[in-house]
Amino acid sequence: MELEEFVKQNLSEALDNLSKWIQINSIDDSINAKPLKPFGEGVYNALQFIARLAKDAGFEVDECEGYCTEIKLGNGPKLISLYAHADVVPVSGDWIHPPFSGIIDGEVMYGRGTSDDKGPAMAAFYALKYLKDNFDLGKYQVRLVIGGNEEKGSRCLEHYFHVLHKPNPDYGFTPDGDFPLIYGEKGISNYKSEMDVDLYPLIKFDAGVVINSVPDVAKALLIKDESLENSLKDSKHKYEIKYFEDKMEVTLFGKASHGSLPQDGVNAGLELLKIIGKHYKNEFLNMLTKAYDEPFGKNLDLYFETPLLHNSTYNVGLINYENNKFVMQVNFRYPENVKIEKVIISLNKKLPLKTTLMSESKHLLFDPNSEMVQTLLKAYQDVTGDYKSEIMTIGGGTYAKECKNTIAFGSAFPGRNDKIHDANESIHLCDFEKSISIYATAIMYLSKL
Predict the structure, then answer these.
(1) How many CB atoms are closer than 10 A to CB 137?
(2) Quick count: other Cβ atoms within 10 Å of Cβ 83?
(3) pLDDT of 366-409, one tens digit each?
(4) How far apart are the C-alpha atoms of 310 and 306, rounded to whole Å?
(5) Where are the beta strands (DSSP E) in 148-236?
(6) In this structure, are strands 202-207 and 313-322 parallel, antiparallel, or unpaired?
(7) 12, 201, 260, 346: which has the highest count of C-beta atoms within 10 A?
C-alpha cells in the first residue's frame, strides 16, 4: 500500500487512539511509586495503553520494568531508534476544553500531551504500523521507545540504557522538537538559591509547579495591609485578594511559557515579589527581582551567546518562602562556551543567597552537513515540499541528549504555536497526519544508509 493511502485510511483510528491516550492523566507521581510503576499510576496507565496498542498490532513489546514501553520492528543487526514520551507536565491556566479531554474542535485537538509528546509518539507508532506490512527494513531493525519521565529528568532512559543495557542506535531521532530538525541544543542546568531571611510582613509565598515552566500563578500570605492593593492596581496585573482578621492572601496571575523561552511568559512569582518589595522597601526582594527581571542574565552580568546555540536564559521556575526560609529554583540554559561550575561560583559572589547546582545536562551539537542531518532533512522536504525552512538549534532539551546518534526531529511545524507547557496545548490534525508520513519516510531513508 502507498504511504499516502495508508495514512488516509488510518487517520480516523489514529486520532481516536490519540484522544483516548490524552484522557489518561500522566503527570509524574513518583512520590507514589510502586513496583513496576516508578512514576506513579497515571504514567503507568499511559505506558500500558501504547503497549496494548502495539501488542494488538502484532509488534514485539518490552515493558521495560515500567520505565518505558519499547516497540520493536525487524531483526536486522543495525538499529534505528525513535524516542518519545508519555508523561506530561502539570496543568495550569485557563483552558478552552478540559486538559485531559482530547477533544477535537474544528481542525485542532486540545489536551495536555497533544503536542508534547503523545501526539508525535502516536504519529511515530502509525509510521511503524505502515512499515510493518509495506516495507523491508533490510539490515535494520526499528525500536520506538516511549518513556515515562522525560519531563522530570529522563530517569526512564537512564534505566533503559544503564540498567536494562539496551543498545544505542546507529541512527536515532526524537519526535519532541521542531521541523525541519534540530541539530543543536543548549546546555541545561537547574540550580537552587536559598537564604534565611525575615521578609516581614510576608509570611508565606509560593509560585510555580515545575522548574522548566514560567510560573503563571503566585500566592502570598501577608500581615493584613489594605494599602498594598494600591500597588497591585498600579502593576496592571490580574490579581485577587482575600482578607482575614489579621492576615491577607494575595494571588497574582502571569502567563505560562516553556522554561526555554522565559521571555515569552510573565513570571507571576517575580512580579508579585517585585510589587511586595517595592511597596515595603524591602532591600532583599528589590535586589533579587532586579537581578532576575531580565531573563537572559544581563542584570547578573552572566549573559552568554555564541553563533550556533545563541543566548543564555534564566527561568525562575519555583519560589517558596516559609518560616523565614527563602528558596528559589532556576532553570538555566546556555550555549557551548559556558562552564556551569564558574556560573555557580559567580552567583555566590554576586548575590547573598547560597546557590548550589541541582542537575546538569551538557549541550548537544551535530554537524549540520552530516549524513544523518541531511537524510532527515530530505525526508521532511520530500513529504512537505518545504525547502525554505532552515534547520535550527534550540534552548529546549530533548531525549537526544540521553542517547547517542540522536536528533530532535519534529513534530512542531514552522510558524505553528502548539502551546506546549501552557494552557490550551493542542495539535492541528493536518500536522499530525503529515507527521506520520514524515516519520515513515525518514525511517525508510535511514534504512538505506
Answers:
(1) 19
(2) 31
(3) 999 999 999 999 999 999 999 999 999 998 788 999 999 999 99
(4) 5
(5) 171-174, 177-178, 182-185, 187-196, 202-207, 217-223
(6) antiparallel
(7) 260
Per-residue pLDDT reduced to its tens digit, 301-324: 999 999 989 999 999 999 999 999
Is there a cis peptide before residue 180, judged by omega within 30 degrees of 0? yes
pTM flag (> 0.85): no
Classify the phi-psi angles of 113: left when phi > 0, otherwise alpha if psi is within -120 to 50, otherwise beta.
left
How far is the C-alpha of 389 from the C-alpha of 395, rounded, in Å? 18
Q: Around 121, how many Cα atoms within 13 Å sit in the side-chain half-sphere? A: 34
For residue 428, give the C-alpha cell: 492541528
Closest residue by Cα to residue 146 from 175, 167, 168, 184: 175
Half-sphere exposure of residue 378: CA atoms within 13 angstroms, side-chain side: 12
Q: Are 179 and 410 in contact (CB under 8 A)?
A: yes
Residue of 187, 50, 177 lying closest to 125 (CA atoms): 50
- Neighbouring residues of 97: CB distance < 8 A, sequence distance ≥ 6: 103, 105, 110, 111, 424
Judge contact between 434 and 8, C-beta under 8 A. no
Q: Which residue has the cell 484522544?
A: 19
Partners of 361 in beta bridges: 188
Instruction: Tell me how long the chain is.
Output: 449
Whole-number Å distance between alpha carbons of 358 and 338: 17
Distances (CA, A) of 9 to 134, 326, 434: 14, 57, 14
Tell me the C-alpha distance between 7 and 435, whole Å.
10
Give the integer Cα–Cα distance in Å for 134 and 141: 14
Q: Residue 110 CA to chain centroid, in angstroms? A: 17
Residue 120's Cβ-count burial label (10 Å; 0-12, 13-18, 19+) is: buried
Cell numbers at residue 409, please? 526531529
Question: Among 116, 153, 92, which Cα is nearest to 22's?
Answer: 116
